[in-house]
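New to this. Comment on this protein:
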Amino acid sequence: MTPVIKKIASDHQVESIVDLGAGQGYLSRSLAFKSNLKVLAVDSSEIQTCGAKKFDDRAVKFLGNDVMKLHHVTDFITPENSSTILSKWSDHDSTKEEKWLLCGLHTCGDLSTMMMKLFTSSPEMSCLVNVGCCYHFLSEKAEHEDQDESKLGFPVSSKVRSIGFKLGPTARMLSCQAPARWVDQQKETLIAYEHHFFRALLQLIMVEKGLIEASVAPVVGRLNKKRDFTTFSVYVKAALKRLKLDEDTITSEEAEEYYIEYKKRQVDKQITILWTLRVLLAPILESIILVDRWLYLNETIQDSPTKGVWLWPLFDPVASPRNVVIAATK
């Protein structure tokens, strides 16, 4: 991603970069190393900022005389405060107007769309490079009815809004799946299918015992994959504890009886088929999210000779399933 950012910055005579959601500063350091770029690494977490500075100290030991123009800031930039924050770090001695490139690598959920709104509304920012992730955290009107549509993460384009398209939590979660990894990670994929069977079987037992309604899946949360999934009965005990239910609500004997019975019925294979078909929709769902963002930028950025909006796969999808970069210039 660093070469892409440097190329766009060079083509548009930009020497100042804002890395939003910088985290531990990996992209920021890569941009600042052996370049004349000034990099402002912004994260809302002080813990992340402190960690990034420690990594900077280690890097400086190996850089010798090559001093990086890298600054870490703990803040939350919004369209309302961006000008104030950027002015603090602008080169006030320069006679020319300072232009900024806004970038973010694997920015989570609404942060990606907020970046795009920040880019389109801030006159100081002339270029954008972003790779988003964590689509399941995107906000939609259905779950945030009292919130202004302009503040939501999906949809952001007027085109998609006008047709009334909605994703919902299930589709957003599916959009994060990575079927491209199945071939290289066959063992892990088969284990994941077994875990899906565990979850479905637990829900069935709880419904039959009158513990939950059929329409409401138990929210167990993330369990330890090595410790809590060794057998179905072990998983049930861990899940009951997480759900704050007595461990004898479903005995180990009951759990094993259900497991053996539904294995005989090959329900686990049925779940595998169903889950596979659902996950194969992931690239389509992700494309809808990304095209919505492309449309938003294309309709919002004013026409000019230097205007451009691009969308293309940048990384190996096996190494990084969220591999599509969106770039824009004003």
Notes: DSSP finds twelve helices and seven strands in the chain. Residues 298 and 309 are 6 Å apart (CA to CA). The first helix runs from residue 2 to 11.
